[in-house]
Amino acid sequence: MVKGLRRIFAQRALLRPMQPWLVVGAVACACLVATLVALRGVATLNQPEPDAGQHMVRHMRYTFAEVARVDGMLQAMRIDAASPEARRLIATAADHLHIRFEVLAGLSRGPLVEPDSRVAPVAWALLDGLDRLASGKTPIDETSLADLRRTSSELTRRTGDYMRGVEADIDKALKIRAENSAGAWFEVIGSVTMLLVLSFISLALRWRNRRMVAELRLASGRDSLTGLANRRGFTEWAMATTAAGPVPGHALLIFDLDRFKAVNDRYGHLAGDALLKTAADWLVARFGDRGIVARWGGDEFVATLALPPDGHADLAALIGERMTDPPELVFKGEPIPLHFSCGIAVWPQHGATIDATMLAADAALYEAKARGRGRQVFYEAGISERRDRAEALRTSLPQALAAGDLFLEFQPQVHVGRGTVTGVEALVRWRDAATGTIIPPGLFIPILEEGDQIAELDGFVIDEACRTAAAWNAEGRRLRVSVNLSPRTFQSPGLAARVAAVLARHGLTARQFEIEITEGVLLIDCAQVGANLADLAALGVRLALDDFGAGYSNIAYLMRLKPDVLKIDRSFVLEGDERIRASIVQGIMQLAETLGAETLIEGIETAEQLRFVRDTGCQIVQGFLFARPMAAGAIPAFCEELEAQYRPALETPLLQQRS
């Protein structure tokens, strides 16, 4: 039974919310059944003993003894028939038999009252014979005695047979009663035992449920991966701290793991989980001694620091000291450094409630990530407003797209040797619906990248650029259109398929569409980036490496990418010795020629810069000297104007016009 109970308790079904109630109901029903069975057994035991002839058989034994005595007397009688002694003996025997027969005749059942009895005729015949002899009606002689002897012997035999039959019935009835009593005792004992067992089960379940509730309460406040308090556990801590009295000063820190998604994408979720555990252990070691550390969700953690009575004048130094020597995870032999962005607020200075302080710390965290990863930012006035504006931008993107507040402008790319526009770069713009002003791309693009809405924006840019190029094609002006995409977009699968679908929808060839790639995209350690670039190249889409020379591109990257265009950064036409700059640009052009790529120099704003570019031999340029970004409808007119300027002379007029 104990083993059975252990198996029952071992079943996880008992841990489900409704199972304890079902078990309690089953135990209650079983207790009711056991009680009813016990009551039935007790009732059986309390029943009176059934009369199967026991009372009658006692009288029969006396009667049988009396009949046997009379039979013995008659068998032994050898006296004178006229002797008074003989008549006296016969009269006495008759009196005794008469008494016994009257008793038997007064019973409810017996040999003298049963209608088909074989004893009664003989008994009454014997009694009548004795009475006749005793009264003298029949002479006492051998003939009369012989008749009485035969009658008494027959009565003795029949009485004995009758008694044996009755005793057999009594034995059978008593046996049945004994069996019923045994069953009743089994029911009573079994039911009592069952009630004891069920009582034990009820107590065990009650203890189990109490422990289970305690475990669930503890588990509900703990993060299963890191063992830290979770959001609920942190909230319970805050409520307990508030209920204890005046809220002591606490620094509230929200940590966000930098590049956590990139680690997940490259190494898998096992590495991500290991990274979270390592981060949790490090945070507990650094901040657990003066507060609570909790996992807020995803790659965000919350920690508190109890402040000394003198306030938080040295809080920045204290936190900075504890943030030194960030941890490092070694996964499959490869080190993965951990870096945190951190937002800090003080409770209750920056918020009367824990929720308000959390909002302040979250705003500081957003500011930290906006300033660059791996930073710690204290909450101050104005941070919440900036965060709110950023949040408003994030949430208003769908409405802005639907209302046409987002649109593209296009900056021409000019072939200075032929005086033609070879292509245009599409640049996204966002007009504030409330003020009508243009929101700088440098403001809203990072915000959308943080909130994962950048894919929606990039999808709009691709579709709108292709639609515009198709419209120019219909007007007879075939121009290549170039777009800029976020590095996040290159990390999502199916980019080439989406581009192919847009090209097909607008009837555009792949070679008329160009995607500009920053060197930062090449540095992303993600297999999906390489797969997307390879698929785009296979599709026939042109790839342009933007801001070349300003970052960390190397020959290996270029050989893998095989770009169609190297866009040389404008810094080479602005800074440093002209001869050195010219040599560098010419070297880049030779490299591009080796790779089979074109070159384009960006940021040409003056005639002197254009002269420098022409001296280096570069033919394709882009910059304010020729045109600022313009609406799609202005591009055909600009192309015609540029071509008209080049018809009289291919060089001088252009230089004079742009001076």
UniProtKB/TrEMBL annotation:
InterPro entries: Cyclic-di-GMP_PDE-like (IPR050706), EAL_dom (IPR001633), EAL_sf (IPR035919), GGDEF_dom (IPR000160), Nucleotide_cyclase (IPR029787), Rev_trsase/Diguanyl_cyclase (IPR043128)
Organism: Stappia indica
Keywords: Membrane, Transmembrane, Transmembrane helix
Protein's name in the database: EAL domain-containing protein
PANTHER family: CYCLIC DI-GMP PHOSPHODIESTERASE PDEF, SIGNALING PROTEIN YKOW
One Gene Ontology term of the molecular function aspect: cyclic-guanylate-specific phosphodiesterase activity
TM helices/strands, residue ranges: 21-43, 184-205
Residue span, EAL domain: 390-643
Limits of the GGDEF domain: 248-381
